[in-house]
C-alpha cells in the first residue's frame, strides 16, 4: 500500500480552466450594518457559560470592552503552553461522537465536554491535551496545520476547546463550519498563521499571542511569527459570541 | 418569499415553463415571477441586456441567496441576511440549539415559524445511553411546547415499526417527506445538510448558536460563496455509482479544495442520475470543505417531488455568463471504481489497487450510502455472484421508508426477490433499525460500531481516525457496489469481478 497514491487515470480529468476572479476573505464580516428586528421576549439575561480561568493560562484584554466594540483592533494577549497537532484535525478528533450526547448549553455538561477536548487524537499523540481526571487543559493555545476542524458541524468542537480552557487555535487554515462556530460561540479564537507553525513549535513550548500585533512569539525557541489579522471576527469573539456582540452593539436589545 | 406569491396549484407542469425561462440567462426579480403568464412554449428569447433585468450574470447558488436576501443580485463574498425556508435539527444538536434559543430569546419565546422547523431524531436512537434518550425527550418537549408541525418522533425503541412518525436519517427523511424544494434555502445543524443541494436548493450545515439564532429570527448572515463547477459527461459505466464520482472529485481537489465554496454538478452524466444518486454527490461536498453543492433541478427532480410537497417552488439556474472560480471536466466513461483509504476522504485509490487489503467487515448505511438505491445496488452484486459474504456485513437502512423498500421492492432480474431476501441468502446481517448507526461511532452499544481496531469497507462518508468508533480502526470508503463485492471476497474488491 502506498502512502500517498494520487492515482489519476491519465485523461480522465483535466483542469479545464482555473481563473481566479475573487479572493474570498476568510473572516466573516459580522460587523454588518444590516438591521434586523428581533422578536425577543425580554426576560432574565443569562450570560454565556465561560470557563474558569486556569492558572497556567493568561488572557489579557487591553481593549476598552464597553466601547467601540466594532473596532477590530483588539489588543488581547494570550500566554501559556502550546499543544501542537497536524493537518486535517477533524471534529471527531476534537470531540469524538460518543460524547455528543453532552449538551453544550447545560453548564455541567459544558464542563464535561472540556474534559474530552482532543481526546480523539490517535495514539501517536503521546501527550494528552487534557490529563486524565482533569477538566481543564494546561495548554492555552492549540497549534495546528491545514484545514483544522474539518468534518462535522458539531458546535461541541469549539465548545470543547473553549471549555477546556484553551484561548486560541492557531492553524494554517480552517474548515468553514468550525471557524464560523468558533466565532458564533466566542469560545476560542480561530487564528491563521502565515507560516506552518505546527512544524515550528513543539507541544510544551511557551508562547504568547499578541492579537493587536497579529504576532505569535515562541519564547522557548525565541522566534516570532506573523499571524493573519482576525479582523471583524475579533470583537465578536471578545464579546462572547454573536448574541453578546449583537447586544453590545445595539443590533438587538440588551436585557 | 417568491414561492408564497404563487398559486398553491403550482405543479411540475408549470415548472416546464419556468425551466424554459430560467435556462435563458435572465435574472428575474420574484415580483415579476408572481405575475407569470401561462404561455409555456413561445417565450421570447431576448438577450439579457435587452430585458434590463440583468446586470450581472449569477450562478445558481448566487441566485438562490440573492432571492432569499431580497436582493436583485449579489457577488461571491457578499455577506447577506438570508431568509431561511427550512431549519432542520436532530437529537445531537437540537437540544443545544434549543438551549441557546431559550437563553437568548427567552423561556417563553416562540420559534419564527412552526411549519419551517423540521426536527428529526436520528443519531443516537437505539441505545440505552440515558443522556441520548434524554436528548430525544428534550426535542419532544420542545416540539409540543412550540407546536412544531414536522417532528418525526420515536417513543418505542424496542420496535421502530411501532413508531409511524419515526423516519430515521434526517437528510434522507427531509427528501422523502418533501422538505427539499428547488430554489429554497435549507439550513441544518449537521454538516451533511448539503445533501439537499441535489434538489437545486441552497443547503448547508450550521452550528447550534447559528441554529438558535435562526429559530428566533428565521434569518442568518451568510457569505455568498464562489462556485466551482464540475462538468461530468459521458455514459456512466454499469459498475460505477455516484459515490465513485464524488470520491474522484474529492481525491482531485482534496479535503479542503472547496472550503468556503459552492460545488455545482452539471453535464449529461449528472442529468442521467436519479435523485438518490444526486443526493450522494451533494452529500459529500462537505468532505471537500464545500459550503454547499447543487444540481440543477430538472424533470427528474420535479417527478420525485410530485405528491411529496404541496408548496409552490421556483427553481433557478446558473446564467450562461455566470462566473465560476474553476471548471473541472470529467469523462465519466473512463473512470474506475474507487475507494478512499484510511484516514482521509481524499486518500483516493482504485479499488483494484487495494485488492490485497484484507477486511474484517462491511457496512452499508448512512445518509451517504444507506438509501434505497444503495441497497438495490448492493443486492445487484450479491445476486450476480450467487455467493455468500466472507465477512460480517451490516446493513442499516437510512429511514423507515428505505427499510420498507428493502423488504418489498423486487430487485430487477431476480425473479421477484427483494433486497432483504437476497441479503439473507448472501449471509448478511439482518437489516437493522433505521438511524445514523455506526457511521459516526456513537454510544458504545450502537449497532455495528467498531469497538475493535478492525478494517471496514463502508458506504459512509468519513474515514478520519475514530470515525466509526475505534481510533485505530481503518475505514475504506466505497460505493455500495464495491462494498458488496468486498464483502463477497473479504478483501477490498473492484465490483467488476462480479458485475461483468
Automatic annotation (TrEMBL), chain A:
<protein>
    <recommendedName>
        <fullName>3-isopropylmalate dehydratase</fullName>
        <ecNumber>4.2.1.33</ecNumber>
    </recommendedName>
</protein>
<dbReference type="InterPro" id="IPR015928">
    <property type="entry name" value="Aconitase/3IPM_dehydase_swvl"/>
</dbReference>
<dbReference type="GO" id="GO:0008652">
    <property type="term" value="P:amino acid biosynthetic process"/>
</dbReference>
<dbReference type="GO" id="GO:0003861">
    <property type="term" value="F:3-isopropylmalate dehydratase activity"/>
</dbReference>
<dbReference type="InterPro" id="IPR000573">
    <property type="entry name" value="AconitaseA/IPMdHydase_ssu_swvl"/>
</dbReference>
<comment type="subunit">
    <text>Heterodimer of the large LEUC/IIL1 subunit and the small LEUD (SSU1, SSU2 or SSU3) subunits.</text>
</comment>
<dbReference type="Pfam" id="PF00694">
    <property type="entry name" value="Aconitase_C"/>
</dbReference>
<dbReference type="InterPro" id="IPR033940">
    <property type="entry name" value="IPMI_Swivel"/>
</dbReference>
<keyword id="KW-0456">Lyase</keyword>
<feature type="domain" description="Aconitase A/isopropylmalate dehydratase small subunit swivel">
    <location>
        <begin position="137"/>
        <end position="186"/>
    </location>
</feature>
<dbReference type="GO" id="GO:0019761">
    <property type="term" value="P:glucosinolate biosynthetic process"/>
</dbReference>
<dbReference type="GO" id="GO:0009570">
    <property type="term" value="C:chloroplast stroma"/>
</dbReference>
<comment type="similarity">
    <text>Belongs to the LeuD family. LeuD type 2 subfamily.</text>
</comment>
<keyword id="KW-0028">Amino-acid biosynthesis</keyword>
<dbReference type="InterPro" id="IPR050075">
    <property type="entry name" value="LeuD"/>
</dbReference>
<dbReference type="InterPro" id="IPR011827">
    <property type="entry name" value="LeuD_type2/HacB/DmdB"/>
</dbReference>
<comment type="pathway">
    <text>Amino-acid biosynthesis; L-leucine biosynthesis; L-leucine from 3-methyl-2-oxobutanoate: step 2/4.</text>
</comment>
TrEMBL record, chain B:
<dbReference type="GO" id="GO:0003861">
    <property type="term" value="F:3-isopropylmalate dehydratase activity"/>
</dbReference>
<dbReference type="InterPro" id="IPR050067">
    <property type="entry name" value="IPM_dehydratase_rel_enz"/>
</dbReference>
<keyword id="KW-0004">4Fe-4S</keyword>
<keyword id="KW-0479">Metal-binding</keyword>
<protein>
    <recommendedName>
        <fullName>Aconitase/3-isopropylmalate dehydratase large subunit alpha/beta/alpha domain-containing protein</fullName>
    </recommendedName>
</protein>
<dbReference type="GO" id="GO:0008652">
    <property type="term" value="P:amino acid biosynthetic process"/>
</dbReference>
<dbReference type="InterPro" id="IPR033941">
    <property type="entry name" value="IPMI_cat"/>
</dbReference>
<keyword id="KW-0456">Lyase</keyword>
<dbReference type="InterPro" id="IPR036008">
    <property type="entry name" value="Aconitase_4Fe-4S_dom"/>
</dbReference>
<dbReference type="GO" id="GO:0051539">
    <property type="term" value="F:4 iron, 4 sulfur cluster binding"/>
</dbReference>
<feature type="domain" description="Aconitase/3-isopropylmalate dehydratase large subunit alpha/beta/alpha">
    <location>
        <begin position="353"/>
        <end position="490"/>
    </location>
</feature>
<keyword id="KW-0411">Iron-sulfur</keyword>
<dbReference type="GO" id="GO:0046872">
    <property type="term" value="F:metal ion binding"/>
</dbReference>
<dbReference type="Pfam" id="PF00330">
    <property type="entry name" value="Aconitase"/>
</dbReference>
<dbReference type="InterPro" id="IPR015931">
    <property type="entry name" value="Acnase/IPM_dHydase_lsu_aba_1/3"/>
</dbReference>
<keyword id="KW-0408">Iron</keyword>
<dbReference type="InterPro" id="IPR006251">
    <property type="entry name" value="Homoacnase/IPMdehydase_lsu"/>
</dbReference>
<dbReference type="GO" id="GO:0043436">
    <property type="term" value="P:oxoacid metabolic process"/>
</dbReference>
<feature type="domain" description="Aconitase/3-isopropylmalate dehydratase large subunit alpha/beta/alpha">
    <location>
        <begin position="75"/>
        <end position="349"/>
    </location>
</feature>
<dbReference type="InterPro" id="IPR001030">
    <property type="entry name" value="Acoase/IPM_deHydtase_lsu_aba"/>
</dbReference>
Amino acid at each position: 500500500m502506498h502512502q500517498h497514491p494520487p492515482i489519476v487515470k491519465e485523461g480522465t480529468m483535466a483542469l479545464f480552466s482555473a481563473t481566479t476572479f475573487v479572493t474570498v476573505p476568510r473572516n466573516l464580516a459580522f460587523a454588518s450594518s444590516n438591521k434586523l428586528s428581533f422578536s425577543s421576549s425580554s426576560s432574565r439575561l443569562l450570560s454565556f457559560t465561560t470557563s474558569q480561568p486556569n492558572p497556567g493560562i493568561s488572557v489579557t484584554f487591553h481593549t476598552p470592552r464597553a466601547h467601540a466594540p466594532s473596532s477590530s483592533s483588539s489588543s488581547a494577549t494570550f500566554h501559556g503552553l502550546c499543544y501542537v497537532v497536524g493537518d486535517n484535525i477533524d471534529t471527531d478528533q476534537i470531540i469524538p461522537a460518543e460524547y455528543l450526547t453532552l449538551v453544550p448549553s447545560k453548564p455541567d455538561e459544558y464542563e464535561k465536554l472540556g474534559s474530552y477536548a482532543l481526546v480523539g487524537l490517535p495514539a501517536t499523540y503521546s501527550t494528552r491535551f487534557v490529563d486524565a481526571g482533569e477538566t481543564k487543559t494546561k495548554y492555552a493555545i492549540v497549534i495546528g496545520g491545514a484545514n483544522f476542524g474539518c468534518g462535522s458541524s458539531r458546535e461541541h468542537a469549539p465548545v470543547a476547546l473553549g471549555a477546556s480552557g484553551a484561548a486560541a487555535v492557531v492553524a494554517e487554515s480552517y474548515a468553514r463550519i468550525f471557524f464560523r462556530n468558533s466565532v458564533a460561540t466566542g469560545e476560542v479564537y480561530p487564528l491563521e498563521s502565515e507560516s506552518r507553525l505546527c512544524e515550528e513549535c513543539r507541544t510544551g513550548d511557551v508562547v504568547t499571542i499578541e492579537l493587536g500585533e497579529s504576532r505569535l512569539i515562541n519564547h522557548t525557541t525565541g522566534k516570532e511569527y506573523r499571524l493573519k489579522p482576525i479582523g471583524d471576527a475579533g470583537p465578536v469573539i471578545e464579546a462572547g459570541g454573536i448574541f453578546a456582540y449583537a447586544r453590545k452593539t445595539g443590533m438587538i436589545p440588551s436585557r | 418569499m417568491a414561492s408564497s406569491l404563487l398559486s398553491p396549484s403550482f405543479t411540475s407542469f408549470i415548472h416546464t415553463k419556468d425551466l424554459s425561462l430560467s435556462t435563458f440567462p435572465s435574472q428575474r426579480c420574484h415580483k415579476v415571477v408572481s405575475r407569470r403568464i401561462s404561455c409555456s412554449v413561445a417565450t421570447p428569447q431576448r438577450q439579457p441586456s435587452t430585458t434590463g433585468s440583468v446586470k450581472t450574470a449569477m450562478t445558481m447558488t448566487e441566485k438562490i441567496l440573492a432571492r432569499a436576501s431580497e436582493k436583485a443580485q449579489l457577488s461571491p463574498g457578499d455577506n447577506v441576511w438570508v431568509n431561511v425556508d427550512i431549519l432542520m435539527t436532530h437529537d445531537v444538536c437540537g437540544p443545544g440549539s434549543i438551549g441557546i434559543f431559550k437563553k437568548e430569546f427567552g423561556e417563553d419565546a416562540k420559534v419564527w415559524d412552526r411549519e419551517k422547523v423540521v426536527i428529526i431524531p436520528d443519531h443516537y436512537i437505539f441505545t440505552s445511553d440515558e443522556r441520548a434518550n434524554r436528548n430525544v425527550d428534550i426535542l419532544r418537549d420542545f416540539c409540543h411546547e412550540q407546536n412544531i408541525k414536522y417532528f418525526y418522533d420515536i417513543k418505542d425503541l424496542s420496535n421502530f415499526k411501532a413508531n409511524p412518525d419515526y423516519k430515521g436519517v434526517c437528510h434522507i427523511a427531509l427528501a422523502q417527506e418533501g422538505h427539499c424544494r428547488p430554489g429554497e434555502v435549507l439550513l441544518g445543524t449537521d454538516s451533511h445538510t448539503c445533501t439537499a443541494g441535489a434538489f437545486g436548493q441552497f443547503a448547508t450545515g450550521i452550528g447550534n448558536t447559528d441554529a438558535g439564532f435562526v429559530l428566533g429570527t428565521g434569518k442568518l448572515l451568510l457569505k455568498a460563496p464562489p462556485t466551482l463547477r464540475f462538468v461530468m459527461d459521458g455514459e456512466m459505466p454499469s459498475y460505477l455509482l455516484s459515490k465513485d464520482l464524488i470520491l474522484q472529485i474529492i481525491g482531485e481537489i482534496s479535503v479542503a479544495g472547496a472550503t468556503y465554496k459552492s460545488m455545482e454538478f452539471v453535464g449529461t452524466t449528472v442529468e442521467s442520475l436519479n435523485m438518490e444518486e444526486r443526493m450522494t454527490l451533494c452529500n459529500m461536498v462537505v468532505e471537500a470543505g464545500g459550503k454547499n453543492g447543487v444540481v440543477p433541478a430538472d424533470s427528474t427532480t420535479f417527478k420525485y417531488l410530485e405528491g411529496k410537497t404541496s408548496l409552490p417552488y421556483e427553481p433557478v439556474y446558473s446564467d450562461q455568463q455566470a462566473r465560476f472560480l474553476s471548471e473541472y471536466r470529467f469523462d465519466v466513461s473512463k473512470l474506475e471504481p474507487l475507494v478512499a483509504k484510511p484516514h482521509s476522504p481524499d486518500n483516493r485509490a482504485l479499488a483494484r489497487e487495494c485488492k490485497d487489503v484484507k477486511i474484517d467487515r462491511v457496512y452499508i448505511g448512512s445518509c451517504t450510502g444507506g438509501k434505497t438505491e444503495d441497497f438495490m445496488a448492493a443486492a445487484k452484486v450479491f445476486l450476480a455472484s450467487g455467493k455468500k459474504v466472507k465477512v460480517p456485513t451490516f446493513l442499516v437502512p437510512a429511514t423507515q421508508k428505505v427499510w420498507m423498500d428493502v423488504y418489498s421492492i423486487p430487485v430487477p432480474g431476480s425473479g421477484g426477490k427483494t433486497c432483504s431476501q437476497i441479503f439473507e441468502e448472501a449471509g448478511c446481517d439482518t437489516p437493522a433499525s433505521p438511524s445514523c448507526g455506526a457511521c459516526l461511532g456513537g454510544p458504545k452499544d450502537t449497532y455495528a460500531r467498531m469497538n475493535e481496531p478492525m478494517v471496514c469497507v463502508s458506504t459512509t462518508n468519513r474515514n478520519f481516525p475514530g470515525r466509526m468508533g475505534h481510533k485505530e480502526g481503518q475505514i475504506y470508503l466505497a460505493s455500495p457496489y464495491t462494498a458488496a463485492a468486498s464483502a463477497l471476497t473479504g478483501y477490498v474488491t473492484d465490483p467488476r469481478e462480479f458485475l461483468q
